[in-house]
Amino acid sequence: MSYEHDVYKVLTFSELADGDGQEGISLPDLMRIIPEYYRNSRVMKAIQSVDAAELGQLRFALDETLKQFFVDSATWGLDGWEKELGLSTDSASPPARRRELIRAKLRGTGTTTKRMLIEAAASFSGGEVEVIEYPEESRFEVKFVGVKGIPSNMAGFIRMLEDIKPAHLAYSFAYTYTTWGNLLSLHWSDAVSKTWSELRTYEGG
């Protein structure tokens, strides 16, 4: 292959990356795109090594910055999402739970309807719900059907619900638990190793 073709053709970063950088950082192999008579030069290898490290860091920084524009991949950018949506920031809370609240807030914008409550609830792990309305009593019931027992981020779910529901409406929760019939396939030796709480939320299998 001629030098001109080797140097001036278009190569993507991924084609040059050799993956020898720090965790999550790929370093481009810049020695591939210089004339062959430089490739045994210790000076040129040192220069290209420094340049590769800088380019790898730059690409990593760009990729990380791009991730912050999407809730599902944001990490250090979650603070900005929370500030924009008027949510309190709890840096000690796991990122997954913070994302749940952000997604729920985004889905809960506008006039509150039964559909909105269901879609906002779906932002939470195990948040598949049925909403049962009792208009004559000015209340509604949220029944969790996506997970047995009490969902893990219940505190966040309640904050979301308080934020989007009409102020005059009361609400209550209903949870789904395992029935005795679902436990018939469970051997006694397996049953005695489980707590009562684990049996109440046993999914089978």
Automatic annotation (TrEMBL):
Pfam families: Phage_Mu_Gp48. It comes from the Bacteria. InterPro entries: Phage_Mu_Gp48. This is YmfQ family protein.
